[in-house]
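Notebook B, p. 112. Complex prediction, attempt 2.
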Amino acid sequence: MTESHDPQLLKGVLSLLLLHLLAERESYGYEVVQRLQAAGFTDVLEGSVYPALNRLQRDGLLGTRLVPSPNGPARKYYRLSEPGRRALAESTAAWARHVAGVEAVLSRPLSEAAGHEGGH
Amino acid sequence: MTIGWFDRLRIERLVWMLDQQLYDLPRAQRIATRREVRANLVEASADVGTTEALRRIGGSRGLAEQYLRAEFGDRPRHSWIGAVFAAGLLPLLLNFVLSEAARAFQDGVVAAHGAGTFTWSGVAGLQTALTVTVTGDGLVSRSGGGWTPLAYVLWALAVIAFGRLWRLRFRSSHVAATSTDK
């Protein structure tokens, strides 16, 4: 579990994370944030998660329903739609390819000479 | 953790400040967003305290920007609010200027000539000809001096410019939401 995450990297995978979490089970906005934080993404802020959920809903990847809450206003629960499931599968495969490509580059050994070339 | 009335006021303040910046969203969506943010903030306040909940959601401006980006994408956006302000305020300004010009002409002819009927072509391009009639007993009446077609065209162009409405052409097609919200 990392201490913190690069916001730019996180921004790129936030939609994928949200789709996966909501594929596991439906949740309302704040619960999604809590689940992300429990997964180690402690620096994820609500201010970026709620609009992202909104965008996924607008794109037809999420459905919603309102459920009365004991604590006050009704909660808006998000669940994955059928297009959302397809998008999750595609994004997961794309992420795996991306990671494999990055790993392939990073696993190359660095020669001693390469480290000193910039000094001349 | 229970939320007191002061904390509820703080939440409400952020929610309404956010709402004021989301007028470019469709009305139903703006209301749904407002309700959702309120519900989540109440939940978060009960969990971590209102101060922390408000800190983590960021300012209303940043949050509004995120919602607008989620709706319209990252490219430059149009602004209905800007267009409405221009549509409402520019006629007031233009009418004030034209009215002052007409009054200046009227005061001039009254001071210089006294009774009679006097015609002026108006502010070039923007105003139709206006006629001032001064009777012997000092009564003054004015007719004409309205907007020319060019003035209407300029007004329309200003509304488009202030609202950046040409960007509407590039707006992404709106995917029908699957929401069941009412």
